[in-house]
Design brief:
- It catalyses: S-adenosyl-L-methionine + H(+) = S-adenosyl 3-(methylsulfanyl)propylamine + CO2.
- It comes from Pseudoduganella umbonata.
- Its cofactor is pyruvate.
- This protein is α+β, with helices and mostly antiparallel strands.
- It has one domain: S-adenosylmethionine decarboxylase (4-Layer Sandwich), CATH 3.60.90.10.
- Helix content is about 20%, strand content about 40%.
- The protein has a 6-stranded antiparallel β-sheet with strand order 2-3-4-5-1-6, with helices on one face.
- The chain starts with 6 loop residues before the first strand and ends in an 8-residue tail after the last strand.
Length: about 120
């Protein structure tokens, strides 16, 4: 098993204007996030997804050796919140690009946070 430094990029993406039918299928969303992890060069450990019922949203996570990709969808609001954190050589932007292409939002706001171990003396 490879070891990874506790450093990486954490992307938080708010996708608005997504067609409701793209946000309701557990199987399709799980396949999308697993494919996005593969495209990023990440190593999938496990995934778990839950649908809230016909026409309702989905929540799920793909656990990675490099961290995770998660999604929460609200088809009634044409909205999905996507969280991608990867360390090591994985490329989280590739994963996000695949998700954006598949969900085709009209608007996307992305925040990027660089994560790393911090000395206790400089923690706020």
């Amino acid at each position: 098993m490879s070891t990874y430094k506790a450093e990486g990029t954490h992307l938080l993406a708010d996708l608005s204007g997504v067609a409701a039918d793209r946000l309701t299928s557990c199987a399709r969303i799980e396949a999308l996030l697993r494919a996005a992890a593969d495209a990023a060069g990440a190593h999938i450990l496990h995934s778990h997804f839950h649908a809230f019922g016909p026409g309702l949203g989905v929540t799920g996570v793909v656990l990675l050796a490099e961290s995770h990709i998660s999604i929460h969808t609200w088809p009634e609001q044409a909205f999905a919140a996507v969280d991608i954190f990867m360390c090591g050589a994985a490329a989280p932007q590739r994963a996000l690009d695949m998700v954006r292409q598949a969900l085709a939002p009209t608007h996307c706001r992305v925040r990027s946070v660089q994560r790393c171990a911090v000395d206790e003396a400089v923690m706020e």
